[in-house]
Amino acid sequence: MSLHTIKGKALVTGASSGIGATYAERLASRGFDLLLVARDLSRLEAMAARLSQAHGVTVEVLKADLTSPADTQVVAQRLRSDATITLLVNNAGVAMNGSLAEADLVKVDALIQLNIVALTHLAAAASATFSAAGRGGIINIASVVALAPEMFNAVYSASKAYVLSLTQTLHGEIGKQGVQLQAVCPGVTRTEIWERSGMDEKALPPEMIMEVGEMVDAALTGFDQGELITIPSLPDAADWNALVNARGKLGPNLSRNSAAARYK
Fold it and tell me: Is 156 a catalytic residue?
Protein backbone atom coordinates (compact mmCIF):
# COMPACT_ATOMS: atom_id res chain seq x y z
CA MET A 1 0.00 0.00 0.00
CA SER A 2 1.09 3.59 -0.55
CA LEU A 3 -0.40 7.06 -0.34
CA HIS A 4 -1.10 6.78 -4.06
CA THR A 5 -3.60 4.00 -3.36
CA ILE A 6 -5.21 5.50 -0.25
CA LYS A 7 -6.28 8.99 -1.41
CA GLY A 8 -9.36 10.60 0.15
CA LYS A 9 -9.03 13.02 3.06
CA ALA A 10 -6.16 13.33 5.53
CA LEU A 11 -6.63 14.59 9.07
CA VAL A 12 -3.42 16.23 10.27
CA THR A 13 -2.98 17.32 13.90
CA GLY A 14 -0.56 20.06 14.91
CA ALA A 15 -1.02 21.30 11.38
CA SER A 16 -0.37 25.01 11.84
CA SER A 17 3.44 24.84 11.78
CA GLY A 18 6.52 22.66 11.48
CA ILE A 19 6.13 18.97 10.68
CA GLY A 20 2.33 19.10 10.60
CA ALA A 21 2.22 22.04 8.19
CA THR A 22 4.74 20.32 5.95
CA TYR A 23 2.71 17.10 5.90
CA ALA A 24 -0.34 19.16 4.96
CA GLU A 25 1.47 20.75 2.03
CA ARG A 26 2.94 17.47 0.77
CA LEU A 27 -0.37 15.61 1.05
CA ALA A 28 -2.24 18.40 -0.72
CA SER A 29 0.31 18.21 -3.53
CA ARG A 30 -0.51 14.49 -3.82
CA GLY A 31 -4.21 15.25 -4.18
CA PHE A 32 -5.48 14.65 -0.66
CA ASP A 33 -8.30 16.75 0.70
CA LEU A 34 -7.38 17.94 4.19
CA LEU A 35 -8.82 18.42 7.63
CA LEU A 36 -6.29 20.52 9.53
CA VAL A 37 -6.38 20.52 13.33
CA ALA A 38 -4.51 22.92 15.63
CA ARG A 39 -5.04 25.67 18.18
CA ASP A 40 -4.05 28.61 15.95
CA LEU A 41 -7.15 29.23 13.84
CA SER A 42 -5.74 32.19 11.91
CA ARG A 43 -2.73 30.17 10.78
CA LEU A 44 -4.96 27.25 9.81
CA GLU A 45 -7.26 29.45 7.76
CA ALA A 46 -4.32 31.06 5.93
CA MET A 47 -2.90 27.61 5.17
CA ALA A 48 -6.27 26.33 3.98
CA ALA A 49 -6.67 29.19 1.53
CA ARG A 50 -3.15 28.78 0.19
CA LEU A 51 -3.24 24.99 -0.17
CA SER A 52 -6.68 24.82 -1.75
CA GLN A 53 -5.70 27.44 -4.32
CA ALA A 54 -2.31 25.90 -5.07
CA HIS A 55 -3.43 22.28 -5.34
CA GLY A 56 -7.14 22.35 -6.10
CA VAL A 57 -8.09 20.33 -3.03
CA THR A 58 -10.71 20.89 -0.35
CA VAL A 59 -9.21 22.04 2.94
CA GLU A 60 -11.24 22.25 6.14
CA VAL A 61 -9.93 23.59 9.44
CA LEU A 62 -10.84 22.57 12.96
CA LYS A 63 -9.63 24.58 15.92
CA ALA A 64 -8.83 22.23 18.79
CA ASP A 65 -6.49 22.14 21.76
CA LEU A 66 -5.54 18.50 22.17
CA THR A 67 -4.32 19.08 25.71
CA SER A 68 -8.06 19.42 26.42
CA PRO A 69 -9.92 16.10 26.77
CA ALA A 70 -13.11 17.75 25.49
CA ASP A 71 -11.44 19.04 22.33
CA THR A 72 -9.75 15.68 21.82
CA GLN A 73 -13.12 13.95 21.88
CA VAL A 74 -14.48 16.36 19.26
CA VAL A 75 -11.66 15.37 16.89
CA ALA A 76 -12.00 11.68 17.75
CA GLN A 77 -15.72 11.79 17.03
CA ARG A 78 -15.00 13.35 13.65
CA LEU A 79 -12.70 10.42 12.87
CA ARG A 80 -15.42 7.98 13.86
CA SER A 81 -18.20 9.68 11.88
CA ASP A 82 -16.52 10.98 8.70
CA ALA A 83 -16.12 8.12 6.23
CA THR A 84 -14.21 10.35 3.80
CA ILE A 85 -11.18 10.46 6.14
CA THR A 86 -8.69 7.82 5.02
CA LEU A 87 -5.44 8.98 6.63
CA LEU A 88 -4.57 10.21 10.13
CA VAL A 89 -1.30 12.03 10.72
CA ASN A 90 -0.96 12.01 14.51
CA ASN A 91 1.62 14.77 14.70
CA ALA A 92 0.60 17.15 17.49
CA GLY A 93 3.11 17.02 20.31
CA VAL A 94 5.24 19.07 22.65
CA ALA A 95 8.74 18.73 24.10
CA MET A 96 10.13 19.92 27.38
CA ASN A 97 13.58 20.53 28.80
CA GLY A 98 15.19 19.70 32.14
CA SER A 99 15.12 16.79 34.56
CA LEU A 100 12.00 15.13 35.93
CA ALA A 101 13.03 15.92 39.52
CA GLU A 102 12.91 19.64 38.72
CA ALA A 103 9.97 19.57 36.32
CA ASP A 104 6.76 21.56 36.53
CA LEU A 105 4.31 18.68 36.85
CA VAL A 106 1.49 20.73 35.35
CA LYS A 107 3.56 20.90 32.17
CA VAL A 108 4.38 17.20 32.48
CA ASP A 109 0.67 16.39 32.64
CA ALA A 110 -0.02 18.55 29.57
CA LEU A 111 2.75 16.76 27.66
CA ILE A 112 1.33 13.36 28.57
CA GLN A 113 -2.17 14.46 27.61
CA LEU A 114 -1.00 15.67 24.20
CA ASN A 115 1.76 13.22 23.28
CA ILE A 116 0.09 10.10 24.70
CA VAL A 117 -3.58 10.45 25.66
CA ALA A 118 -4.82 12.52 22.71
CA LEU A 119 -2.71 10.53 20.25
CA THR A 120 -4.16 7.29 21.64
CA HIS A 121 -7.76 8.48 21.46
CA LEU A 122 -7.34 9.59 17.86
CA ALA A 123 -5.55 6.38 16.91
CA ALA A 124 -8.35 4.37 18.52
CA ALA A 125 -11.01 6.25 16.56
CA ALA A 126 -9.11 5.91 13.30
CA SER A 127 -8.45 2.23 13.94
CA ALA A 128 -12.14 1.53 14.38
CA THR A 129 -13.20 3.49 11.30
CA PHE A 130 -10.42 2.40 8.99
CA SER A 131 -10.46 -1.29 9.90
CA ALA A 132 -14.24 -1.42 9.41
CA ALA A 133 -13.74 0.08 5.95
CA GLY A 134 -10.80 -2.21 5.17
CA ARG A 135 -8.55 0.68 4.17
CA GLY A 136 -6.64 3.68 5.44
CA GLY A 137 -3.41 4.72 7.08
CA ILE A 138 -2.23 5.98 10.47
CA ILE A 139 1.05 7.87 10.71
CA ASN A 140 2.24 8.47 14.27
CA ILE A 141 5.12 10.89 14.79
CA ALA A 142 7.50 9.42 17.35
CA SER A 143 11.21 10.29 17.71
CA VAL A 144 14.63 8.69 17.73
CA VAL A 145 14.72 9.34 21.48
CA ALA A 146 12.35 6.38 21.74
CA LEU A 147 15.43 4.33 20.87
CA ALA A 148 17.97 6.42 22.78
CA PRO A 149 16.17 7.66 25.91
CA GLU A 150 19.38 8.68 27.65
CA MET A 151 19.81 11.50 25.13
CA PHE A 152 16.95 13.72 26.20
CA ASN A 153 14.27 14.68 28.71
CA ALA A 154 12.82 11.67 30.54
CA VAL A 155 9.10 12.40 30.05
CA TYR A 156 9.39 13.38 26.39
CA SER A 157 11.53 10.34 25.59
CA ALA A 158 9.11 8.05 27.40
CA SER A 159 6.15 9.55 25.56
CA LYS A 160 7.79 8.84 22.21
CA ALA A 161 8.67 5.29 23.27
CA TYR A 162 4.95 4.88 23.93
CA VAL A 163 4.13 6.12 20.43
CA LEU A 164 6.58 3.67 18.89
CA SER A 165 5.22 0.73 20.91
CA LEU A 166 1.60 1.67 20.23
CA THR A 167 2.25 1.76 16.50
CA GLN A 168 3.93 -1.65 16.51
CA THR A 169 1.06 -3.18 18.48
CA LEU A 170 -1.61 -1.54 16.30
CA HIS A 171 0.09 -2.98 13.23
CA GLY A 172 -0.45 -6.43 14.70
CA GLU A 173 -4.08 -5.65 15.54
CA ILE A 174 -5.33 -4.01 12.34
CA GLY A 175 -2.59 -4.34 9.75
CA LYS A 176 -4.22 -7.45 8.28
CA GLN A 177 -7.49 -5.54 7.92
CA GLY A 178 -6.07 -3.24 5.28
CA VAL A 179 -4.85 -0.40 7.51
CA GLN A 180 -1.24 0.70 7.06
CA LEU A 181 0.64 1.83 10.17
CA GLN A 182 3.80 3.89 10.36
CA ALA A 183 5.81 5.34 13.22
CA VAL A 184 8.12 8.10 12.07
CA CYS A 185 11.20 8.56 14.26
CA PRO A 186 12.89 11.83 13.30
CA GLY A 187 16.09 13.04 14.80
CA VAL A 188 16.50 16.74 15.50
CA THR A 189 14.29 18.60 13.01
CA ARG A 190 14.29 22.37 12.49
CA THR A 191 10.85 23.45 13.76
CA GLU A 192 9.32 25.81 16.33
CA ILE A 193 9.32 23.06 18.97
CA TRP A 194 12.79 24.18 20.09
CA GLU A 195 11.80 27.70 21.03
CA ARG A 196 8.56 26.55 22.65
CA SER A 197 10.34 24.03 24.90
CA GLY A 198 13.07 26.44 25.99
CA MET A 199 15.92 24.59 24.28
CA ASP A 200 18.68 26.17 22.24
CA GLU A 201 18.89 24.63 18.78
CA LYS A 202 22.20 26.45 18.20
CA ALA A 203 23.84 24.42 20.96
CA LEU A 204 23.64 21.30 18.77
CA PRO A 205 26.06 20.42 15.96
CA PRO A 206 24.58 21.51 12.60
CA GLU A 207 25.12 18.01 11.19
CA MET A 208 22.49 16.72 13.63
CA ILE A 209 19.69 19.01 12.42
CA MET A 210 17.52 18.06 9.42
CA GLU A 211 15.33 20.51 7.55
CA VAL A 212 11.66 19.74 8.03
CA GLY A 213 10.88 19.37 4.32
CA GLU A 214 13.57 16.76 3.83
CA MET A 215 12.41 14.87 6.93
CA VAL A 216 8.77 14.71 5.83
CA ASP A 217 9.68 13.76 2.25
CA ALA A 218 11.77 10.86 3.56
CA ALA A 219 8.97 9.79 5.90
CA LEU A 220 6.40 9.79 3.10
CA THR A 221 8.74 7.75 0.92
CA GLY A 222 9.07 5.29 3.80
CA PHE A 223 5.28 5.03 3.97
CA ASP A 224 5.11 4.43 0.21
CA GLN A 225 7.68 1.66 0.66
CA GLY A 226 5.56 0.02 3.34
CA GLU A 227 7.86 0.68 6.29
CA LEU A 228 6.34 0.21 9.72
CA ILE A 229 9.15 2.19 11.36
CA THR A 230 10.84 5.01 9.46
CA ILE A 231 14.02 6.67 10.74
CA PRO A 232 14.69 9.37 8.12
CA SER A 233 18.39 9.84 8.91
CA LEU A 234 19.34 6.14 9.20
CA PRO A 235 21.64 5.26 6.26
CA ASP A 236 21.33 1.47 6.41
CA ALA A 237 17.99 -0.20 7.12
CA ALA A 238 19.91 -3.33 8.10
CA ASP A 239 20.85 -1.61 11.35
CA TRP A 240 17.19 -1.32 12.33
CA ASN A 241 16.51 -4.87 11.17
CA ALA A 242 19.37 -6.10 13.37
CA LEU A 243 17.71 -4.45 16.38
CA VAL A 244 14.37 -6.07 15.52
CA ASN A 245 16.06 -9.46 15.17
CA ALA A 246 17.88 -9.05 18.48
CA ARG A 247 14.60 -8.23 20.18
CA GLY A 248 13.03 -11.28 18.60
CA LYS A 249 15.78 -13.46 19.99
CA LEU A 250 14.82 -12.35 23.50
CA GLY A 251 11.23 -13.45 22.93
CA PRO A 252 11.33 -17.13 24.01
CA ASN A 253 13.03 -16.22 27.29
CA LEU A 254 11.00 -13.19 28.36
CA SER A 255 8.38 -15.23 30.21
CA ARG A 256 9.29 -18.62 31.70
CA ASN A 257 8.18 -20.68 34.67
CA SER A 258 11.41 -20.27 36.59
CA ALA A 259 13.99 -17.56 37.21
CA ALA A 260 17.21 -17.69 35.21
CA ALA A 261 20.06 -19.63 36.79
CA ARG A 262 22.08 -16.41 37.15
CA TYR A 263 19.61 -15.22 39.81
CA LYS A 264 19.81 -18.38 41.91
Answer: yes
